[in-house]
Design goal:
Blueprint: H1 3-31, E1 35-42, E2 45-52, H2 58-72, H3 80-85, H4 94-109, H5 119-124, H6 137-144, E3 152-155, E4 158-161, H7 171-188, E5 194-198, E6 201-205, E7 214-219, E8 232-238, E9 242-247, E10 252-255, E11 258-261, E12 276-283, H8 286-299, H9 301-309, E13 315-321, E14 327-331, E15 339-340
Antiparallel strand pairs: 1-2, 2-5, 3-4, 5-6, 6-9, 7-8, 8-15, 9-12, 10-11, 12-13, 13-14
Helix pairs in contact: 2-7, 4-8, 7-8
Length: 341
């Protein structure tokens, strides 16, 4: 190394030392700090965030969540996804790009059981933008003509559609992404111990105020549109993990005495019709867990079990109804070590 390179590193060394010392001081400060608790509403649901820090970051958390909403909410008239659905010329930002690429990957791996182009069918069946008109088969078939993740792609940060009628809906993955965004913010702040929950999607890191792994409950699937019942099916101990649950026991419609699930099968155009009641997925990030949980609610029990044989990286807890109408569970073997009393 010549003298010029040596001088370059000598000038950088004090700044590197300052950065390292500052990081150590932040970690030590947070280790003795109280646990903050923030809550609010976003994406049409509630969030609850607990983290150990001497500083309250709620305003910054809300700012990050607002960025996600401005990128991915179809209910936000100024959002990027709204512009895309309206066929406006709009380049996507980094947040949208990450979610889109993950969604397309999950769509490919699940053969389209997960599909963010399903929005027109969701709307038709009365979810999302409410529509109380019961669709007939001709209407469903007409919409299926422009449903399919293969009909969209991203080129130079622009979303290209094969048909202008194609509409995107990232609701099945955006909540999980929002959790990941908040987790990234707290990590940048040097926070070591936190639990973030948005509408049932969760990321944990470190330990709780009880000096133990975070305990997260899987709700028993009881038909309850008002979410008044919070009976727990299973409690898990989680550390540095993401969890998402999808189910049809809270979000459904009853028309002429028949229950319709809120999960729409992109292949048939109809609500998913099987005995799987809820799917909980633990993955490396909440966005991924969220997407697969939705896909499994389309697949049903047996197809999901076959899928998991080829994806050992996913840890899954399924609740289903047997032929007698009794609730049963299936879970991947690695999950048992996370069971908590």
């Amino acid at each position: 190394m010549d003298n010029k390179q040596n001088n370059k590193w000598i000038w950088k060394l004090p700044f590197l030392i300052l950065l390292i010392v500052g990081s150590i001081l932040i970690i030590r400060q947070n280790a003795n700090a109280p646990y903050q608790k923030d809550s609010g509403t976003i994406f049409g649901t509630f969030y609850h965030i607990t983290y150990q820090s001497s500083t309250n970051y709620h305003e910054e958390i809300k700012a990050e969540l607002a960025k996600v909403d401005a990128s991915l909410s179809p209910f936000n008239k100024e959002s990027i996804i709204t512009a895309i659905n309206n066929n406006s010329d709009m380049k996507v930002n980094d947040m949208f790009k990450v979610v889109f690429e993950t969604a397309m990957k999950i769509s490919e791996q699940t053969d389209g059981d997960f599909d963010i182009t399903v929005s027109p069918l969701v709307n038709l069946w009365g979810f999302g933008f409410k529509n109380d008109i019961e669709p007939d088969s001709a209407v469903v078939d007409s919409l299926k003509e422009f449903i399919g993740y293969q009909k969209i792609k991203m080129v130079n940060n622009n979303i290209q559609k094969e048909d202008d009628r194609i509409m995107l809906d990232c609701s099945s993955i955006a909540k999980g992404f929002g959790v990941d965004v908040v987790a990234a913010l707290l990590s940048r702040k040097g926070v070591q111990n936190f639990m973030i929950e948005i509408g049932g999607e969760v990321v944990t890191h470190g330990i709780s105020s009880r000096n133990q792994p975070w305990r997260i409950g899987i709700t028993k699937p009881i038909d309850d549109m008002m979410a008044a019942t919070q009976e727990t099916q299973q409690i898990l101990s989680l550390n540095n993990e993401a969890l998402a649950t999808s189910g049809n026991y809270r979000n459904f419609r009853i028309v002429d005495g028949k229950k319709y699930a809120h999960t729409i099968n992109p292949h048939t155009g109809y609500p998913a019709d099987h005995n799987l009641l809820s799917a909980t997925v633990i993955a490396k990030d909440c966005m991924t867990a969220d997407g697969y949980a939705t896909a499994f609610m389309v697949m049903g029990l047996e197809k999901t079990k076959l899928f998991l044989e080829n994806h050992p990286e996913l840890v899954v807890y399924l609740i289903y109804s047997n032929e007698q109408g009794e609730n049963q569970v299936y879970y991947t073997p690695s999950l048992e070590q996370k069971f908590s009393n």
